[in-house]
Automatic annotation (TrEMBL), chain A:
Keywords, comma-separated and alphabetical: Signal
PANTHER family: THIOL:DISULFIDE INTERCHANGE PROTEIN DSBA, THIOL:DISULFIDE INTERCHANGE PROTEIN DSBL
Transmembrane segments: none
Pfam families: Thioredoxin_4
Organism field: Craterilacuibacter sinensis
Keyword Membrane: no
Domain Thioredoxin: start-end pairs: 24-172
Record's protein name: Thioredoxin domain-containing protein
TrEMBL record, chain B:
Compartments in which it is found: Membrane
Membrane topology, as annotated: Multi-pass membrane protein
Superkingdom classification of source: Bacteria
A Pfam match: DsbB
Entry GO MF terms: protein-disulfide reductase activity
Membrane-crossing segments per the record: 7-28, 40-58, 67-89, 109-135
The protein's name in its UniProt record: Disulfide bond formation protein B
Cross-referenced HAMAP family: BdbC
Family classification: Belongs to the DsbB family. BdbC subfamily.
GO biological process: one example: protein folding
Key words, A-Z: Chaperone, Disulfide bond, Electron transport, Membrane, Oxidoreductase, Redox-active center, Transmembrane, Transmembrane helix, Transport
GO annotations of cellular component type: membrane
Length: 219, 143
């Protein structure tokens, strides 16, 4: 009986230490991120980045996305929905964090297709057909080419554009900013420069609502 | 299992396994360091020790020592190999996990300039094996 009490007490103590350390570490991280977040506004929004919503909206959501990322696809309607939920007050900026294998090629293709067709339907088509072209976390450029061809994109032009200096610059700039802002998981979300420190649908909605209230007063 | 000496030896080994297991989970789940392939082999050897030795202690069954030792030895071998890679004694192209997203040669955490996770792992396995070995040599006149 005494033995079992010692064992049980040890397990409880170890678990307590574990969760204590976890809480401590997470609060430290949140503080660090909050401290560095708003300083880097220039790295968050670049002139080349696609924007959804009015230019004069005071609340800017920046989403670092990977077209091959499943959570990004699941989060996309929610992020875009914010523009409708707060008309005139919120805009969304897309940046790339091509973390999946081969995803940088898909980003190039998407940016090249953007020169020919409206951007947001293209991105949505990619997300919706993700299971087809991004199996086992491997992005398949040939399958994306088939999708874009079906969407009426001129593939000869796309092949020329996707390795042009302009698109090279976009890919490199996004990758540099991604590293500087330490976005190593997607989607990487920032609202008015404040990073979403704890990931989740509720947390994201609360962060946006808080910034809308701060910028436009209580509604 | 013999009281109190043998029980205490196994208990200390179990404590080391418990702390190592929670420590490994802390670094992967909370800090977010992704375990490489070799880390996983060491985890596979370490995590069950908590249950096997824990059950042995609860039932005061010395047989648990015999069941735990093979795991401890395999874990120590994997940790030893990992430390060789960290030290640069085994060339890059020989390591078994170059293709994954996490390289076994990449040092994610270093305390005081020399304490790394594989070193902690090797020390933990070495201590557990030593304790279990001494415990297994204790006279078994009592069951």
């Amino acid at each position: 009986m005494k033995n079992k009490s010692i064992l049980l007490a040890s397990v409880l103590l170890a678990l307590l230490a574990f969760f204590g350390a976890a809480r401590f570490y997470q609060s430290q991280q949140a503080e660090n991120m909050a401290a560095q977040g708003s300083v880097n506004s220039e790295q968050l929004v670049r002139a080349h980045a696609p924007v959804l919503g009015p230019a004069d909206a005071k609340v800017t959501i920046v989403e670092f996305t990977d077209p091959a990322c499943e959570t990004c696809a699941a989060f996309s309607p929610l992020v875009k929905g914010m523009v409708e939920q707060y008309p005139g007050q919120v805009k969304v900026v897309i940046r790339y964090a091509a973390l999946h294998h081969g995803a940088d090629q898909i980003v190039r293709m998407l940016e090249a297709a953007r020169l020919q067709k409206p951007y947001w339907p293209l991105l949505e088509t990619l997300y919706q057909n993700q299971a087809y072209w991004a199996q086992n976390h491997q992005a398949d450029a040939n399958k994306v080419a088939a999708i874009f061809m079906h969407e009426g994109v001129d593939m000869t032009r796309l092949a020329q554009d996707m390795n042009s200096p302009a698109i090279n610059a976009i890919v490199q700039q996004d990758e540099a900013d991604r590293q500087a802002l330490k976005v190593d998981m997607t989607p990487g979300l920032f609202v008015n420069g404040k990073p979403l420190t704890e990931f989740g649908v509720g947390q994201f909605k609360a962060l946006v609502a808080g910034e809308v209230a701060r910028s436009y007063g209580q509604q | 299992m013999q009281y109190p000496r043998q029980w205490n030896l196994v208990f200390i080994a179990w404590l080391i396994a418990l702390v190592s297991t929670l420590g490994a989970l802390f670094f992967s789940e909370i800090v977010g360091i992704e375990p490489c392939v070799l880390c996983w082999y060491q985890r596979i050897a370490m995590f069950p020790l908590v249950l096997i030795l824990g059950q042995g202690l609860a039932k005061a069954d010395a047989a648990a020592i015999r069941y735990a030792l093979p795991l401890g030895i395999i874990g120590a071998l994997a940790a030893f190999y990992h430390n060789l890679i960290y030290a640069g004694l085994i060339p890059q192209d020989l390591q078994p996990c170059g293709q994954g997203s996490t390289s076994c040669a990449q040092i994610d955490l270093q305390l005081f300039g020399f304490i790394t996770l594989p070193l902690l792992s090797l020390l933990a396995f070495a201590a557990i094996n030593t304790l279990l070995f001494i415990a297994s040599k204790a006279p078994r006149n009592e069951k």
